[in-house]
Structure prediction request, 303 residues.
Amino acid sequence: MGQPLTEATAGPTRIVLDTDLAMGAPGSDIDDGFALALALADPDLRVEVVTTVGGNSDVQTSTRLTHALLEVLGRTDVPVVQGLPADDDAAHEIVRRVLAEPGELTLVTIGPLSNIARALELEPRVATAVREVVVMGGVYLEQTNVAAMPGEYNFWCDPEAAQAVLQSGLPLRLVGLDVTRRVRLTRADAERMADSGAFGRLAAEHTLGWIAFQERVKPHEEIEQGSCALHDPLAVAVVTRPELCTWRAAHVDVETEGRFTRGVAVADLLMWQDPPAPNCRIATEVDAETFQQLFVERLAGLP
Prediction:
C-alpha cells in the first residue's frame, strides 16, 4: 500500500470531489453541500472537478443540485461530471485526469464508491497514479447499531464497490462514522448562518429541515436531537489538516454477502501476531473543537 501524503506541499492540493450531493432536496442530508462549500472556501484546496454518484439522491438529482449549489457559491467555472448508476462518464473522467498527471490529484469521496471502483476496473493504474484517496465511509471502532442499515450508509449502498477500492492498493485514508458523528452543527449554528449571505440562507433553511427530520426519524438517538453531523466536511478538512484526526494503520474489508451485515467494515488493527498487511489508515479520534472553528471560519468567507 502506498503511503498517503500529508505533509505540506507548494500550492493548493488539487482534488476531485466525488459526491452524492443532496442539499436542496426536501428531507435529504445536507453535509455533502457543506463539504463542497468547504472545499471551495479552503485556500489550500483547488477543486478540479466534481463527479456525482447516486446515494443520498438519484445521480441525476445530485448532478442538478451540484450545479445549482455551484451557482449559489459563484463557482460555475467548476466542471461537474455525472456518474453511476446513470453512466460511466465520471469514472472515465477520473481515469483521464489521474493518468494525465500522476501523483498530482487527490480523490475525496463522500458518497458511495461506485465511480471509484468503476475507474479502477477501467484502468487499474489509477491505484498507483493517484496522490491519495480520502474516503468518508465505514464505521470501524463502533457499530451503527441499526439492523436495517448495519453498515455505514456509503458502504451499505454499494459494498462491492467499497471492497473493490479497499483491495485495489490505493493510498487510502478512511474517515468513518465513529468520528464524523462527533462533529456537529446545532440548530443555533444554522440559525446564525441565515444572516451570512446567499449560501448561508440556503444552508440554514435545509439544515433546520434536516435536523427536524432526524429528530422525527431517530427520536431515541440522543446525539441527533438538536443538531446534525458534519460527516463529509470532516473528510474534506483532513485533506490539508490531517492533524484534526488521529490515524491508525489497519486492514479493512467490507462485508458484501452477509445476511445481517451488509456493508459492515471489518477493521483489523494489526494487534495480533502475523497480522494482515495494512491497506489503509483509519481515523480513530477527532479534535471536534478545532474542526468546528475551522469550519465556521472558512464558511464565513463565502458569498
